[in-house]
Automatic annotation (TrEMBL), chain A:
The lineage of its organism: Bacteria, Bacillati, Bacillota, Bacilli, Bacillales. The keyword Metal-binding applies. One of its GO terms (molecular function) is anaerobic carbon-monoxide dehydrogenase activity. This is Carbon-monoxide dehydrogenase small subunit. Signal peptide: none annotated. It comes from Neobacillus niacini. Keywords: 2Fe-2S, Iron, Iron-sulfur, Metal-binding, Oxidoreductase. InterPro entries: 2Fe-2S-bd, 2Fe-2S-bd_dom_sf, 2Fe-2S_ferredoxin-like_sf, 2Fe-2S_ferredoxin-type, 2Fe2S_fd_BS, Beta-grasp_dom_sf, Diverse_Oxidoreductases.
TrEMBL record, chain B:
PROSITE patterns: FAD_PCMH (PS51387). InterPro entries: CO_DH_flav_C, CO_DH_flav_C_dom_sf, Diverse_Substr_Oxidored, FAD-bd_PCMH, FAD-bd_PCMH-like_sf, FAD-bd_PCMH_sub1, FAD-bd_PCMH_sub2, Mopterin_DH_FAD-bd. Keywords: FAD, Flavoprotein, Oxidoreductase. SMART domains: CO_deh_flav_C (SM01092). Residues 1-176 form the FAD-binding PCMH-type domain. Gene3D superfamilies: 3.30.465.10, CO dehydrogenase flavoprotein, C-terminal domain (3.30.390.50), Uridine Diphospho-n-acetylenolpyruvylglucosamine Reductase, domain 2 (3.30.43.10). SUPFAM superfamilies: CO dehydrogenase flavoprotein C-terminal domain-like, FAD-binding/transporter-associated domain-like. PANTHER family: XANTHINE DEHYDROGENASE SUBUNIT C-RELATED. GO terms for molecular function: FAD binding; oxidoreductase activity. This is CO/xanthine dehydrogenase FAD-binding subunit.
Length: 162, 278
């Protein structure tokens, strides 16, 4: 069990394939630790209430909203943030299809799409719709985002990483 | 984010969790059990709840069971809703669950967290109410099993320090004909208005409701009226509505009159479809 009496505890987090040692309070959200302790600012604070998906990251290849997850819950798991995707097909597809305007929601959408493609390399339209309804884009780029994800499914956009 | 210096514990056994709860309580630390934690984190951020310590039960293996045991199928309280949906052992539960929150949130929301939550809806409890399920609870006196009807009255009637370990349903219920309908105020993803779930067993229909009253429920009186096939459907529905528990919700999501209007149409749709199903 982690030491509860200390105000801060030292934990190792496996982030984007690197082990990072960090001092956290047990109640710190993963979003807060990523941004404020590790300077990984790809995951964005939006609603902070689990509604908008701007803060989405992957933990063990599943997508989670990092504003409603404690950092301590991710100890021992592999965390992937948008900074951990390098030249992935879905990132390239977002660029190619202009699937953003202001870009604030984009890292969250990309992480959700990445997790979706890992689980369902050939998703139906219904599955895509169900997964993507977890994220909100204030600039309403939904059509372009769908085009981006289906261009990856159909192998029209590649990248150097999966 | 929750404020303050909250302590975090992750016990690996049921007994350790309960012992930890009472130690913390003695120290006046306001402990709370925690599984997916989505409700604790959102209500805590809004300053509505103020836990002093949280006891994360996700590492307790019994809370992660998803297996057959004799005549029953066991659902551990810490299973995320999406896990249950992907396995799809109990299609009524899958379909009810898929209407809760959104896909990413359901990776974190657990079945136990939803059925024990503070919000009105708690739709995941409806299939368990319909199927006379059994509830396994841990507490000071060890583990106890209860028929859900004995321990669920608007909410789970747990004693201090108790927590839900598992929900069991008899396998005969897993594949019965069912319908679950969720009506929203607007759009496909708008805020929920009412959810009605229905199964057919031995030619009788059973109904459970959420979003109609400030708590989910199943009512014998309502079911008796809805199954009275001597009367025309409209009359059966009128009599059933007279037997509803009170109060019917009347809020910004929908007035009482609107909710009853939607309920009437939904019940009609369901009865027509279910009475044809074998
Ligand atoms: S910031 Fe996490 S869901 Fe909106
Ligand atoms: S691109 Fe602006 S919020 Fe989505």
């Amino acid at each position: 069990m982690p030491n509860p009496s200390a105000k801060k505890i030292s934990v190792s987090l496996n982030i984007n394939g690197e082990m990072r040692q960090v001092e956290i309070r047990p109640i710190d959200t993963l979003l807060y630790v990523l941004r404020h302790h590790l300077s990984l600012t790809g995951a964005k604070p939006g609603c902070l209430n689990g509604d908008c998906g701007a803060c989405s990251v992957m933990v063990n290849d599943n997508v989670y909203k990092s504003c409603i997850m404690l950092a301590i819950e991710s100890v021992g798991s592999a965390i992937t943030t948008v900074e951990g995707l390098k030249d992935s097909p879905i990132q390239n597809a977002f660029v190619k299809h202009f699937a953003f305007q202001c870009g604030y929601c984009t890292p969250g959408f990309i992480m959700n799409c990445q997790a979706l493609l890992l689980k369902h390399p050939h998703p139906t339209y219904e599955v895509v719709k169900e997964w993507l309804s977890s994220n909100i884009c204030r600039c309403t780029c939904y059509q372009e985002i769908e085009e981006a994800i289906f261009s990856v499914v159909e192998g029209r956009v590649g990248g150097t990483s999966e | 984010m929750l404020a303050g210096n909250i302590e975090y514990y992750q016990p690996s056994t049921v007994n350790e969790a309960v012992e930890q709860f009472f130690i913390l309580k003695k120290e006046n630390k306001l402990p709370m059990y925690y599984a997916g934690g989505t409700e604790i984190l959102t209500l805590g951020r809004l300053n509505i709840i103020h836990p002093g310590a949280i006891i994360d039960i996700k590492a307790i293996k019994e809370t992660l069971s998803h297996e057959s045991y004799q005549e029953h199928f066991i659902f551990g309280a810490s299973l995320p809703l999406t896990y249950i949906e992907e396995k799809n052992i109990f299609p009524l539960l899958t379909q009810t669950s898929m209407e809760i929150a959104d896909h990413t949130a359901r990776n974190k929301i657990t079945i136990g967290g939803n059925v024990c939550g503070n919000i009105f809806y708690r739709e995941a409890v409806l299939p368990f109410l319909l199927c006379d399920s059994t509830v396994v609870v841990a507490g000071k006196e060890g583990q106890k099993t209860h028929p859900i009807q004995d321990i669920f009255n608007k909410t789970f009637q747990f004693e201090e320090g108790q927590f839900l370990i598992q929900l069991l349903i008899e396998k005969k219920y897993l594949t019965l004909p069912f319908i679950t309908i969720k009506k929203r105020q607007q759009w496909e993803t708008g805020y929920p208005l009412i959810t009605v779930a229905c199964i057919k067993i031995e030619n009788q229909l059973r109904f459970a409701f959420s979003g109609l009253c400030p708590f989910p429920f199943r009512s014998q009186k309502v079911e008796t009226e809805l199954n009275n096939t001597l009367l025309p459907k409209e009359e059966r529905i009128n009599h059933a509505i007279e037997q509803l528990p009170t109060p019917v919700l009347n809020d910004v999501e929908g007035s009482k009159e609107y909710r009853l209007f939607v309920l009437r149409n939904t019940l009609k749709e369901m009865i027509v479809e279910m009475e044809e199903k074998e």
